[in-house]
Q: What sequence folds into this?
C-alpha cells in the first residue's frame, strides 16, 4: 500500500498537472485510470500489431524500477520530459534513473538500453531518432520482460511491439502552426523557407504538417528547404544558407525550436528584421523565451514536463495492471505567440530548464 506521504505528493502532482492543462486550454478530455495521479486519454490502438499487452509485475510500486533513455542528454527538451517522468515516478515511491548518450548517437543509446535491462529495469521510457536501428535491441528488452514506453512520438506503427506511445500529434500540431502563419500574414505575399531536421519520421511529420497548414494559401510560396540537423548551430547555418541564397524569404518554419533559434540568430547577424520565424516544441529557452523576446513569431508548445508526467503514470499503470497497453496516448500541443506565452513563462515550476528570468503572467 502507498504511504501517506506519497499520496500527498501525488495529490500535489495532480494539482500541478491539472493547472497546467487548464492554462494551455487543452480541448482533450483526459480519462485515465480511476486512481491515477495524472489522468490521460483512453488512447488509440497502435496499428499493424505494434501494440504490446502490459505485463502486470505483481510488485508494489515501491519495488518498481523505471529507466528513462532519451536520444541524448544535450537536448533540454528531453531533460524536461525526464523531469516530468522523475517527478511522477519518484512521487509514487518507485525508483527512477536516467541514462543518456552525451551526443545523439543511436549506437551508444542501444548499449544503454541493454544496460538498463541488466540493471533490472521493469520499464524503459525512451525515444530514439533511428527506430529501425534500435528495433532489435528494444525487441530483446521486451522479450526479457521489460515494458517499453515510447515518448515524444505519435508513430502508429513502431517497428516492434511496445506497451505505449505517448506524445502529441506532430503533423496535426504543426499544421496549426502553418494555419497560424497564414492568418498572421493577412493576405500579404509570403516566400517561405523550411529548416528540416535530420531525415526521419519526425521530420516528415512536422514539415508535412506545416505544409498542410499553408496549403491552399495563394499568397504562400515555398522557396527552399534545408537540413538543420535539429541543433541551434545547424539551424544557424541553414538559416544563413536560406537567407543569403534567397534574400526575398520573409517566413521560415523550423521543425524544432533549436533550429528556429539558430535561424533567428542568422537573421539578426544579416541585419534582417522582418523575417517571421516559426518553431516547434515549446522548449523553454529556445522556444518560449524566444517568442517572448520577439525573435520567434510563434511555436508549438507541447508541454514536455506534463508529457513526462503522463508517460510516468502510463508506465506505472502498465506495470501494476491498471493500463492494458498497446495504445497511443495523446498529450497537449498548442500554438503560442507573444500574447499567450507569458501565461506559461510565469509558472516556472512546470518548465525545465527554468526561464532565464522571471516573467509576469501579463507580459
A:
Amino acid at each position: 500500500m502507498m504511504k501517506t506521504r506519497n499520496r500527498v505528493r501525488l495529490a500535489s502532482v495532480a494539482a500541478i498537472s491539472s493547472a497546467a492543462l487548464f492554462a494551455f486550454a487543452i480541448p482533450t478530455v483526459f480519462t485515465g485510470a480511476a486512481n491515477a495521479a495524472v489522468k490521460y486519454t483512453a488512447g488509440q490502438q497502435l496499428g499493424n500489431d505494434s501494440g504490446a499487452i502490459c505485463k502486470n509485475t505483481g510488485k508494489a510500486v515501491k519495488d518498481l524500477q523505471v529507466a528513462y533513455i532519451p536520444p541524448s542528454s544535450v537536448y533540454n527538451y528531453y531533460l524536461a520530459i525526464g523531469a516530468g517522468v522523475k517527478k511522477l515516478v519518484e512521487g509514487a515511491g518507485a525508483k527512477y534513473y536516467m541514462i543518456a548518450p552525451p551526443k545523439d548517437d543511436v549506437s551508444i543509446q542501444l548499449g544503454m538500453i541493454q544496460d538498463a535491462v541488466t540493471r533490472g529495469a521493469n520499464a524503459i521510457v525512451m525515444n530514439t531518432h533511428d527506430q529501425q536501428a534500435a528495433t532489435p535491441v528494444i525487441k530483446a528488452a521486451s522479450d526479457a520482460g521489460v515494458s517499453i514506453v515510447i515518448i515524444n512520438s505519435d508513430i502508429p506503427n513502431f517497428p516492434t511491439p511496445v506497451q505505449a506511445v505517448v506524445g502529441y500529434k506532430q503533423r496535426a500540431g504543426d499544421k496549426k502552426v502553418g494555419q497560424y502563419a497564414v492568418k498572421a500574414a493577412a493576405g500579404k505575399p509570403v516566400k517561405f523557407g523550411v529548416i528540416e531536421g535530420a531525415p526521419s519520421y519526425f521530420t516528415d511529420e512536422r514539415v508535412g504538417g506545416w505544409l498542410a497548414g499553408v496549403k491552399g494559401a495563394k499568397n504562400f510560396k515555398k522557396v527552399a528547404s534545408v537540413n538543420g540537423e535539429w541543433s541551434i548551430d545547424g539551424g544557424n547555418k541553414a538559416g544563413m544558407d536560406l537567407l543569403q541564397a534567397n534574400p526575398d524569404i520573409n517566413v521560415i518554419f523550423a521543425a524544432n525550436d533549436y533550429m528556429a533559434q539558430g535561424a533567428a540568430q542568422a537573421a539578426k547577424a544579416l541585419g534582417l528584421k522582418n523575417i517571421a520565424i516559426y518553431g516547434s516544441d515549446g522548449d523553454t529557452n529556445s522556444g518560449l523565451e524566444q517568442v517572448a523576446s520577439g525573435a520567434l513569431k510563434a511555436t508549438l508548445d507541447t508541454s514536455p514536463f506534463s508529457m513526462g508526467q503522463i508517460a510516468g503514470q502510463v508506465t506505472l499503470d502498465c506495470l501494476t495492471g491498471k493500463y492494458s497497453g498497446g495504445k497511443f496516448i495523446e498529450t497537449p500541443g498548442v500554438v503560442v505567440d507573444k500574447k499567450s506565452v507569458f501565461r506559461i513563462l510565469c509558472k516556472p515550476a512546470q518548465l525545465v530548464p527554468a526561464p532565464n528570468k522571471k516573467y509576469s503572467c501579463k507580459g
